[in-house]
Design the sequence.
């Protein structure tokens, strides 16, 4: 049986993060359709240039393949366990929020937040801080697409200072981290995968062939 030809396709960042000027990775495939919905993991520090983000991963999903390459959308981020553990201190209270919000383009995003208070606080303080975070995130999500929302949470950290300031009205925080986000509904449906591949024959002609080393 003749083996299918394998070739390399370059995956690019979303337009929000540079598009064709920002290649993410070269991915091996034998059929362009196999790339649709594939997840590409990239170290967060490559985008933020912040040393503190060396333990952050960004996740991109391939949603379109053309002769020019594979195009992605930003679907989430997370931090490695060691970074999260380093935020947890003794003689402080842990306030954790895991919530789902809906963005203005109708997608559902799961967000996980960890905050540590300066000293041990009462349960009522924890409940109030959780409520503040949940309402804040829900309101911000309504104003942005899922990709913009995740960008502001993970890369730009646009709202970190404001969330910390709001929490301080209830009880001062020592540590704060939005440690995970994921767009749970941003996926190409099975019946639309074929349409997400443009000019399939041309893709094969332009792609770099994978060659086994002898």
Sequence:
């Amino acid at each position: 049986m003749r083996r299918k030809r394998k070739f390399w396709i370059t995956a690019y960042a979303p337009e929000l993060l540079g598009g064709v000027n920002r290649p993410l990775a070269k991915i091996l495939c034998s059929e362009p359709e196999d790339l649709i919905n594939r997840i590409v993991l990239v170290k967060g520090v490559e985008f933020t240039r912040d040393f503190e983000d060396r333990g952050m991963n960004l996740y991109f999903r391939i949603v379109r393949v053309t002769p020019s390459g594979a195009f992605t959308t930003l679907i989430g981020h997370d931090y490695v366990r060691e970074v999260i553990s380093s935020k947890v201190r003794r003689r402080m209270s842990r306030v954790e929020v895991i919530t789902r919000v809906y963005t203005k383009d109708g997608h559902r995003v799961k967000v996980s937040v960890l905050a540590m208070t300066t000293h041990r606080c009462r349960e009522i303080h924890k409940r109030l801080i959780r409520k503040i975070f949940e309402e804040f995130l829900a309101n911000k999500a309504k104003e942005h697409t899922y990709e913009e929302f995740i960008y502001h949470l993970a890369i730009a950290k646009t709202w970190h200072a404001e969330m910390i300031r709001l929490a301080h009205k209830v009880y001062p925080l020592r540590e704060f981290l939005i440690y995970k986000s994921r767009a749970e509904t941003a996926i190409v449906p099975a019946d639309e995968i074929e349409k997400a591949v443009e000019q399939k024959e041309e893709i094969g002609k332009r792609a770099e062939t994978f060659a086994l080393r002898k």
